[in-house]
Design goal:
Layout (H helix, E strand, L loop, with lengths): L1 E3 L4 E3 L4 E7 L14 H13 L4 E5 L12 H15 L6 E4 L3 H10 L3 E4 L8 H6 L5 E5 L17 H18 L7 E4 L8 H9 L12 E2 L5 H7 L7 H13 L4 E4 L2 H17 L1
Parallel strand pairs: 3-4, 3-10, 4-5, 5-6, 6-7, 7-8, 9-10
Antiparallel strand pairs: 1-2
Helix pairs in contact: 1-2, 2-3, 6-7, 8-9
């Protein structure tokens, strides 16, 4: 299976590790660690040394309760880094829901739009559709970052998540996008309870019924803290475990902070697959 992006046709026959690069002062795990373009670029380079296949750059925190970032501020954070990162020779994803940011980074050569709103912001569908080769990740989010955990979803989340993602993919295809451009993300932690998040992991393979590859983003999430009692900076081991479980249940891409450890764990999983 191939994920078509602006500059790369990514072979998903082997699970891919997407390294997180937050250019933010307030992200829940590493806010402020890579605040300058120079520091963030060095982090990109380190993630590639650690084995990342894709880099995911974000200029706005979407942790529960996080305030929205003004457009000019997000552009000032993201654009200089993307301009440098596209020269690193790997697919560059940008985590944004703002159409103007999507347009700016795609014009600079970014490969993927990773949108927590699944292109529901006015103009977002049109921007992506106007770049017929770019990759896109459509994520399920209940409500918005300011309110999603104040009133999480109710009932069986899997059919709700699946129907939403199928609809958003259909809307993009209707504008001329190709199926090979699209990945789906169930949105772990985005308006779901701890139990619902783990239900999505346990039944994740059912999401493959939509016919698209899946991205899983469990890294350092609060649900891992809820079941382990570990603070966010101590959640590397449960994050790696969740990534391997997600891959074992069919995820093609895992979005992680701890790239080196995740790559090593997936090497063990892959070795088992080869002889199993």
């Amino acid at each position: 299976m191939i994920w078509q992006t602006s500059r790369f046709s990514i072979d998903l026959g082997r699970p891919k590790v997407m390294g997180i690069v937050n250019v933010t002062p307030d992200s829940f795990s590493d806010g402020g660690c890579h605040g300058s373009t120079i520091a963030a670029l060095r982090h990109c380079e380190q993630l590639l040394k650690d084995g990342a296949d894709i880099l995911d750059i974000g200029g706005e925190s979407t942790r529960p309760g996080s305030p929205a970032v003004p457009l000019d501020e997000e552009l000032a954070r993201v654009v200089p880094l993307v301009r440098d990162a596209v020269a690193l020779g790997v697919p560059i994803s940008v985590d944004t829901y703002k159409p103007a940011v999507m347009q700016a980074v795609l014009d600079l050569g970014a490969d993927i739009v990773n949108d927590i709103w699944a292109l529901r912001q006015p103009g977002a569908l049109a921007v992506v559709a106007s770049h017929p080769q770019c990759g896109v990740c459509l994520m399920h989010m209940h409500r918005d970052p300011q309110t999603m955990q104040a009133a999480p979803m109710v009932g069986d989340v899997l059919p709700q998540v699946l129907s939403f993602l199928e609809l958003q993919a259909h809307n993009l295809l209707a504008l001329g996008a190709q199926k090979e451009q699209i990945l789906l993300d169930p949105g772990i932690g985005f308006g779901k309870t701890v139990e619902q998040n783990f239900a999505l992991l346990a039944r994740q393979d059912a999401l493959l019924a939509a016919g698209y590859p899946l991205l899983a983003g469990w890294s350092r999430k609060s649900s891992l803290g809820a079941v382990t009692g570990l603070e966010v900076d101590q959640r590397m081991v449960p994050s790696v475990a969740a990534a391997v479980l997600a891959v074992d249940r069919g995820a093609s891409v895992v979005r992680v902070h701890d790239v080196r450890e995740t790559v090593a764990a997936l090497a063990v999983w892959s070795a088992m697959q080869r002889v199993g």
